[in-house]
Request: fold
Amino acid sequence: MDEQAKDLQSGLVGAAIAVTAWGAGSILAKSIDMGGMAIAVYRFSLFSVILVGWMAVRHVPASLRMLRYSMLGGLALGLDVALFFSAVKLTNVVNATLIGSLQPIFVGVVAAAFFGERIARRDIVWSAVAVAAVGMVVLASNETPQWSAKGDLLALGATISWGCYFIASKQSKDHLSSTEFTAGTAIWTAAINIPLALMFGQDLSWPSGENWVWLIVMTLLAGFVGHSMMNWSLVRIPLWIGSTFTLLIPVASSIMAWIVLDEALTVNQVLPMVVVLGALAMVVMNQSAAAPPDGA
Reply:
């Protein structure tokens, strides 16, 4: 197997790990007794300290160049986090994560138009099937007690910001390492959410001991594992594939919400989830089959 094929396969594995970690992050956000933007402030402040410290140990100090080239990604991620965490507080986890998973449509168009990525017709079909299944799950959950139209609208805004973050991550590879980009966006995200939280009257006082425990777990899992692994993977796989992998987030978070938070999960939701998993599996197998053989 040549180096390109190895990079593709390792990138696919990394993306799968990242989206599973993000799915767990949605559950942790629901469990923290703080406003959505306040969670973002403390989580990403802690995340940036960890990453900058890790870079210092590796003799790669943070710099103004890092902040400059990560600014667009940080702005996008900051808005995404603020909107998404606020949405999770209002609507059910299923809706918030599933609406967010619709961003492959947006990212796929951008990837084809501006990055020259060629998407095979069969992969477009399977991606469309997965997106349609996502919509079916959202419709099936609208009658559950935790549903909120305002929360769904916030989740839609987060979806657009989320897609912009993926695009910025792909563009950053010419200027920053994946660790530098992740650290820079974490700093920007924390900085952006401070004024937003104050503007919307959220309490930024020091978290309780229990909340700190969950914030640390969330930072290490959804932050260190999720963002670091996805940014690392996007250097190795096409942008649209990384975006399509986010369709796994609602499947993971919905199952965990059912187990941990006792949120309703009906047959009408489970069946489309199976379709999402099957369609995504087809995309992954198609990419693995398209990888060049040894010596190609």
Summary: Residues 182 and 189 are 10 Å apart (CA to CA). Residues 3-290 form one domain.
